[in-house]
Structures are given as structure tokens and as C-alpha cells.
């Protein structure tokens, strides 16, 4: 049934006659900026294709996990983000990968600088046959990121603290890194990666071979990280 025009006019008049209240809007926080952009990424080991048409965006200040069975391409994809696959003969990538708006596969890309910006922790801990201190200081020294011995020592201490390892090793920094337990060695490798303050940390199943206590410490470290953490896992816990 149609509504008489007079009734509509009456409703509108009564609504408009009500006192108008000021509407306040809470400020909307800025959305995190896009850090990594992947478009139509394909990757090949020789003639064997391992990755198919991957497209995704990753924003700043996030923890992202890729979960799947062994052999599905998780590690391969991680290594495309800092071009670690370049070290494997016969491999090549197709598509587009940008970090901070720059195509990392463009000719002339400084791969050393890229890997400083995008650090990586491997599934199997790989400490250098050096002291605990020298392991963490390694990247700082070769990249000349400190100006004094005091600054170097402070950066090493901060990285070990961030990796939840400082309390356990502060009195034996000159001891061999190979004397540490498996969980400690993995956290040392994380400290080594964090020492150069990368924008992105790639972690390839960092806790797969560790006991529950060591695993919990690494998970807490990932949750507290200030940089982007991208991790892989074969299972969801």
C-alpha cells in the first residue's frame, strides 16, 4: 500500500525538527605500509617448476607463516625474497618481487645489501666455528656498521638479548659457539641475523628440531620482533 505524501512530509519534518547532535569520529590509525609485493612469481630448478604464479602482499610489522608439507615450496619461496636461490646452479625465477617498491630481480641489484636488509635463519643451525661474540659480530664487522669497539659490544649484547640468549652466555662470550646446545645455537643464529637490524627476517622452520622449551623461546622471540618475520612450518600448533 502506498504511503500518502502528507505522511511522508510529516515524518521528514519531525525528523528534521530533532536537535542535531555533533558527531565525533575517532581518528583512524594509518594502515601499515606495504613492504613486500610479489606478482606472478614462478621458480624453476632447471626444467622443474617449483613455484607457480604466486601473488601476495606483505605489510610492515607483521608475522607471517607459510604452513604446508615437506616439498611444497615453502623454503624455495622464502629464498626468493633475498635471492639465496641464486647460489644454486641452474635455477631461475620469473615474475616480479618488490621490497620497498624496488624490484629485487632488476639488473644491477646489490645482492649483498639485499641480504643485509632481508636476513635469514635456516632450519638447521649453522654457527660459524668462532666464538659466541664473533658469530654475532660477524655481519657488523664485514658491513662496517659500527664506529667503535664500545658500539660493537653494545650491538652484540642487544642482539643476544633480543634472541633471549644473553643471560645464558654473557659470562662466556669468548667460548666456541659450537659448545652451545642445539636450541642455543639456533638462537645464536637468530641473534647474528638480528645484529645488522634487517627490515625482514626469514625463518625456515627455525624450531623443527628443537625441544619444547627452546621452541617456546623462539616463538616468543618471533612474536616480539620489531621487524617483519616470515616463517615456515610443516604443522600448525
Could you explain the architecture of this structure?
There is one protein chain. The protein is α/β, with parallel strands linked by helices. The chain has one domain (34-233): Rossmann fold, CATH 3.40.50.300. Helices cover 35% and strands 23% of the residues. It contains 8 helices and 8 strands. Strands 2-1-4-5 form a 4-stranded antiparallel β-sheet, with helices on one face. β1 and β2 (48-59) form a beta hairpin. The relative contact order is 0.15. Mean pLDDT is 85; it is low at 1-24.
What's the SSE blueprint?
Blueprint: H1 5-17, E1 34-45, E2 48-59, E3 63-67, H2 74-80, E4 91-99, E5 102-103, H3 111-117, E6 118-121, H4 132-142, H5 149-162, H6 166-169, H7 182-195, E7 200-204, H8 212-224, E8 228-233
Parallel strand pairs: 3-8, 6-7, 7-8
Antiparallel strand pairs: 1-2, 1-4, 4-5
Helix pairs in contact: 4-5, 4-7, 5-7
Q: What's the quick description here?
A:
The protein has about 240 residues and is an alpha/beta fold. It has a single domain, classed as Rossmann fold (3-Layer(aba) Sandwich). It has helices at about 5-15, 75-80, 110-115, 130-140, 150-160, 165-170, 180-195, 210-225, and strands spanning about 35-45, 50-60, 65, 90-100, 100-105, 120, 200-205, 230-235.
| CATH hierarchy: architecture | 3-Layer(aba) Sandwich
Unreliable spans are: 1-24
Predict the CATH topology. Rossmann fold
**Widest β-sheet, arrangement of strands:** 2-1-4-5
Number of domains: 1
Helix content: 25-40%
Tally the helices.
8
- Indicate the proportion of strand residues: 15-25%
